[in-house]
Amino acid sequence: MTQEELTANYIKLLPIIGDSFNESPLYISLGEDSNYYSLFADASQVEFQQSLEELIERKGKTWSVSGYLENRSTMLREIPHMVAEKRFYHLGIDINLPCGTKLYAPYDCEVALSKYEDGYGNYGGITVLKFQSSKTYYMLFGHLNPDKLPIVGEILKKGEAFAQLGNMSENGNWFYHTHLQVLTPKAYKGGWVSKGYCMESELPTIKQFCPDPLEHLSLSHE
To answer: Would you say residue 221 lies in a domain?
Structure first.
């Protein structure tokens, strides 16, 4: 992803985050080749959150986005299971917003999964929404407030609030954001809900399981 690509496509994210963030976001790669590598290379999540907020303010923005398939081996250096499995390639996009920001259903959908995933480096509060159009697919939202999650089986209307971003004590100890990941039925049934990152060897076929959210989202539900 580039800043130009994000600027051209960010409008697809607005139905999810509401009217308070209607200007284009800053693109902040968290990959090994990032222009902002120094912000997270040796920083704790608390330090990175502070640096992120300061950077966004300096740039005259109110939110930022981090990208799909970034190699985040440095960011994940202290997450033992990620390092052991060499799962470093980010399968979603991160929508970086203030703690407590509400999220809204971009289309009519059903809550397929809603739970709390405990543990350092995990999702914390997590919700998966099931969408039915010409094809069935799923959207996973991670790092949420576990006390504000919807109920499994609940039917949501487009524009209905369903969750809020969690703080570090409840979101897996991450900076404030939601991880948005699209899953095909094959991925959902195959256990990819628990995998926000993949190995390098999985990259050639990964779009069969977890396509790029910005390419997949549309302004109208077809």
So the answer is: no
